[in-house]
Design goal:
Layout (H helix, E strand, L loop, with lengths): L10 H4 L4 E4 L8 H11 L6 E4 L5 E2 L2 E2 L13 E4 L3 H14 L3 E4 L10 H15 L3 E3 L5 E4 L4 E2 L12 E5 L2 H12 L5 E6 L8 H10 L5 E6 L5 H11 L5 E5 L4 H11 L6 H11 L2 E3 L2 H13 L8 E5 L2 H13 L9 H7 L13 E2 L12 H7 L6 E5 L4 H10 L4 H24 L5 E5 L6 H8 L4 E3 L1 H16 L1
Helix pairs in contact: 3-4, 6-7, 7-9, 10-17, 11-17, 14-15, 15-16
Length: 478
């Protein structure tokens, strides 16, 4: 295992000071152009040197006929060229002294036949010049803490704490917007493609030492270094959680993975065993992969599997209770002390069982302050699961009835909602128990956005929330 981040062969790829770029032009129909546009949109701060056989300028940058003409030796090269000339470009990079490259171009091992021979030739060049390469057939890396993005789509959203190593390039780039909608983002995301050289294990070891990464996500079509993979996971998991999605367990998944990256998938049971040996939390879908990363990277670990549910509606409470049971969680009864403390806040139409169901509260702020504070003090509770429902139209209606001028209603409603979010956020920051939310409202609702922006996970429906809590419990047990 590495002892410092700078020892990683991926460090110059994830943290380059300068980049040579092959395959970009002034045509927006070009794949290479779009990748260079993404790099520019990320605000990359170092020099970028487009290499083009006839253009003098590419996207406003001075272009060079040959990589040998560059005024310096860049830290890495990004190659987005027709397959037949990739190896020639890589040879020229080696002669220039460039020792790191991202090979975006496809048409190698994943196609079989002549592609296998081309990838073998590529690796001969890599070894000849003591280079390390990511790919081929990948999208490279996104490290927004360093304003770096070599993928197809521009990165929109915050730099975050989820480190990703993916054998799918498009998964990296297509998750930008999805994670931003949850208030999340990648720390560093690697697309490893065919793994001719650098692979998932190399990416895991880098992310294990990355100071911005709190949790590691893996998208796997096939692991080529099984024993090393398990050993690396065992070393990482005690310090940083690892969540994996394996998509090669079925025959259809195996065939898709092989045609995608040439990955040699194995039986599902084999990967289940590898994950258990390595202490890796297994996800069963892309949604679960990032749900689990969300809670594992943002919440304290629970001491057990006991969950207390707080709601102001019986149906959502019952649905959450059922979801918790199906996820293997427990719903303890509340202590007499907690019941007595709740009495002033729960009307006679409510319930102080678990779920705690208010049905209605004359002071809505209690739902965000006094009640969760009492429930978090409950010794029988390891996790608090809250149903959030603060529709802006209801808040506006109340303000209108109070006589607030119409032109001030919308702004004041948002201020009240934001104040409630801040109140519970302050409470969450003072506890060592995880607090998870769920809702049937849109995640774009102002109240939900106010919570997720403050680091409180809120899931669309109790099922995803319960499975995420169960993942927290599993990792805590390991």
């Amino acid at each position: 295992m590495l002892t410092t981040l700078e020892e990683s062969p991926l460090y110059p790829i994830a943290n380059p000071k300068s980049v040579a770029f092959f395959g970009a032009s002034n045509s927006v129909a070009s794949m290479g152009t779009n990748l260079l546009l993404s790099l520019q949109a990320a605000g990359f701060e170092g020099p970028v040197y487009p290499v083009h056989y006839k253009e003098d300028r590419v996207l406003g940058l001075k272009a060079y006929r040959s990589v040998l003409d560059l005024p310096e030796v860049p830290d890495m090269a990004v190659v987005v060229l027709p397959t037949r000339i990739v190896n020639d470009a890589l040879e020229a990079c080696g002669r220039k002294g460039i020792r790191r490259a991202v090979i975006v171009s496809g048409g190698f091992k994943e196609l079989g036949g002549g592609g296998i021979a081309l990838e073998r030739e590529l690796m001969e060049i890599v070894r000849r010049y003591d280079m390390r390469v990511l790919g081929p057939n990948c999208l490279g890396v996104a490290n927004l803490h360093r304003h770096l993005n070599t993928t197809f789509l521009p990165y929109e959203g915050p730099a975050g704490f989820i480190g990703l190593a993916s054998q799918s390039g498009s998964l990296v780039t297509q998750m930008f917007d999805y994670l931003a909608g949850l208030g999340l983002g990648f720390s560093t995301a690697f697309s490893v493609g065919n793994e001719a050289d650098l692979d998932l294990v190399d990416a895991m070891e880098y992310l294990a030492l990355c100071p911005h990464t709190r949790v590691i996500a893996l998208y796997i079509e096939g692991v080529r270094r099984g024993r090393t993979f398990v050993e690396a996971a065992r070393a990482i998991v005690p310090h940083k959680p690892v969540v994996a999605l394996y998509v090669g367990g079925s025959e259809t998944g195996r065939q898709a993975g092989f045609s995608h990256t040439g990955a040699m998938a194995g039986p599902d049971e084999l990967y289940e065993g590898m994950f258990k040996q390595g202490g890796i939390i297994r996800a069963r879908s892309v949604t679960e992969l990032f749900d689990f990363c969300w809670v594992l990277g943002s919440l304290p670990l629970p001491k057990g599997r006991r969950v207390v549910i707080q709601t102001h509606s019986g149906g959502p409470g019952a649905a959450a209770a059922d979801a918790c049971g199906r996820a293997g969680l427990e719903l303890p009864s509340l202590s007499n002390d907690t019941v007595q403390k709740l009495a002033p806040f729960v009307p006679h139409t409510g319930s102080v069982n678990n779920p705690v169901d208010l049905t209605f509260s004359k002071n809505p702020n209690d739902f965000y302050s006094s009640i969760p504070e009492i429930l978090l003090q409950e010794e029988r509770a390891d996790t608090l699961l809250i149903y959030f429902l603060t529709p802006a139209p209801v808040v506006k209606r109340a303000l209108q009835q109070m006589g607030l001028p119409p032109e001030q209603v919308a702004e004041q409603a948002l201020c009240l909602i934001d104040g409630q979010c801040e109140t519970i956020s302050r409470l969450v920051r003072t506890t060592d128990k995880p607090v998870v939310g769920y809702t049937f409202r849109s995640l774009d609702d102002p109240s939900i956005r106010g919570l997720t922006r403050r680091g409180i996970p809120v899931f669309p429906g109790p099922e995803r929330a319960a499975r995420a809590i169960a993942a927290l419990v599993r990792y805590a047990g390991r």
